[in-house]
Amino acid sequence: MRKLYIAGNWKMNKTPSEAASFAKELAEKASDAKVKVMIAPTFVCLPDVVKAVKGTNVIVAAQNVNDHKSGAYTGEVSADMLKDIGVNTVILGHSERRQYYGETDEFINAKVLFALESGMDIVLCVGETLEERESGALEDVLKRQVSVGLSGVSAENMKKITIAYEPVWAIGTGKTATPADAEASHAFIRGVVKDIYGSDVAENTIIQYGGSVKPANVKELMAQPDIDGALVGGASLTLEQFLPIIHCVD
């Protein structure tokens, strides 16, 4: 049975001191959580947050990583740098990276492969824009993003991959896909994984939902058979919002 995976993507929020203080209190109040818990601070916050949650059940992830081991890549961070400070998980392919920084499916795939080679766990984000959904391209977009994003990934390495479905039109907008719509997209993604890797891998792949998840809608979303957790944005920035999401199955 797949265990729910609740992750907080803090995006470009919180200073290092704010992040460490928040993470320490979160870890204390989420110590009895029945779900897998992850937080993804900015690069500058990572060392302090890792120290703040050391020995707890909270996973610390990076929001991005480069596709090279080292070199002349100004402003970038490598997998070895992250692992050296105790970060072994990374979010890749987030819609904001695709939209604002022009990251293509092929570039995201290169980062996926290098992160796996470096021994990291990955949350791979996929999702359609409102225009793509309304034009009937939803399934084509999801199939392309999943297939290209996972190109060259072995069935064995799929154990290290979590997929996050995040409809772009529902991120930071207050809009949320209905549970039925979200479930349909999750089921389709699981079907794509099944076509590539077979039933066993598909049934064991965690697929999170991301897009204006909050305490008021999380239980209904998590009740769907193919939704295995949440990639939470704004609601992960306060304990008042994030803790009820973490404890949604208590």
Describe this structure in words.
- With 250 residues, the protein is an alpha/beta fold.
- It has one domain: TIM Barrel, CATH 3.20.20.
- It has helices at residues 16-29, 46-52, 79-84, 95-101, 105-117, 130-134, 138-149, 179-197, 199-204, 215-222, 239-246; strands at residues 5-9, 36-40, 58-62, 89-92, 121-126, 161-165, 207-209, 229-232.
- Strands 7-6-5-4-3-2-1-8 form an 8-stranded parallel β-sheet.
- Helix 7 (138-149) packs across helix 8 (179-197).
- The radius of gyration is 17 Å and the shape is globular.
- The protein starts with a strand and ends with a helix.
**Helicity, as a percent range:** 40-55%
Detail the poorly predicted runs.
Answer: none
> What percentage of amino acids are in beta strands?
5-15%
Give the second-level CATH assignment, the architecture.
Alpha-Beta Barrel
Query: Looking across the biggest beta sheet, what order are the strands in?
Result: 7-6-5-4-3-2-1-8
- Examine the coordinates and then state which fold CATH places here, giving the name of the CATH topology: TIM Barrel
Describe the global form.
globular
The number of distinct helices, counting runs of at least 4 residues, comes to 11
What structural category arises from helix and sheet content?
alpha/beta
Biggest sheet statistics: 8 strands, parallel
The radius of gyration is: 17 Å
Give the name of the CATH superfamily. Aldolase class I
| CATH first level | Alpha Beta
Instruction: State the separation between the terminal residues, measured CA to CA.
Output: 17 Å
Count of β-strands: 8
Would you tell me the overall average pLDDT? 96
Number of domains: 1
- The SSE order reads EHEHEHEHHEHHEHHEHEH
